[in-house]
Amino acid sequence: MSCEKDCVRDCAKVVLPKNVADAIKEMRDNGVNDCGIVYYVMSDPGSSDLTDSIKEIERWVFKYGEGGSPDLLMSAIVNGYVVEATPEDKLREYLRRNEIEPASVPVSSNTVYKMIGRRQGVWDTLDILGITVEGVNG
Q1: Can you say whether residue 39 is alpha, beta or left, with left for phi > 0 and alpha for psi between -120 and 50 degrees?
Q2: Which of 25, 35, 65, 68 makes an SS bond possible with 61, Cβ 3.0 to 4.6 Å?
Q3: pLDDT tens by residue, 29-65
Q4: What integer pLDDT is reported at residue 2 of this predicted model?
Q5: Which three-class secondary structure state does DSSP give residue 78?
């Protein structure tokens, strides 16, 4: 029973930053197998067409504070991974949660005004900062 619990804990999918997931995908798209990815990251193969991808993964694996480790890389490659939501994705989700279904809420409801205010606050902030987020204000 303890072994099953360990497997559930150890086999959980790793959450990878989008740039690291993109780098792994690029390497796989270029014919590098899972062992090759680990090999390239753990050793310095010199210059290649994939140098940028290798360096992106290396930074995550070895740079203190980036959240990665060699064990997490191997777990992600073997057990699969989930791509961490970007700030833009989180903003789109926040706005989606604050959408209003007119038929479901009375017009005089405070909830409606709060939801409208939240959405408008996001749009105003993006406008003030000069930021365009696809699917939100651009």
Answers
A1: alpha
A2: 68
A3: 999 999 999 998 888 666 566 788 888 999 899 887 7
A4: 44
A5: helix
Q: In 10 A of CB 74, how many CB atoms?
A: 17
Domain boundaries, the chain: 2-83, 87-129
- Sorted by sequence, the CB contacts under 8 Å of residue 111 that are 6+ apart come out as 105
The full 3-state SS of 7-49, as one line of letters, equals: HHHHCCCEEECHHHHHHHHHHHHCCCCHHHHHHHHHCCCCCCC
pLDDT tens digits, one per residue of 51-102: 888 889 998 998 877 788 999 999 999 999 999 998 899 988 988 888 777 6
Structure-token pair, residue 25:
């995908």
Indicate the residue type of 91: L
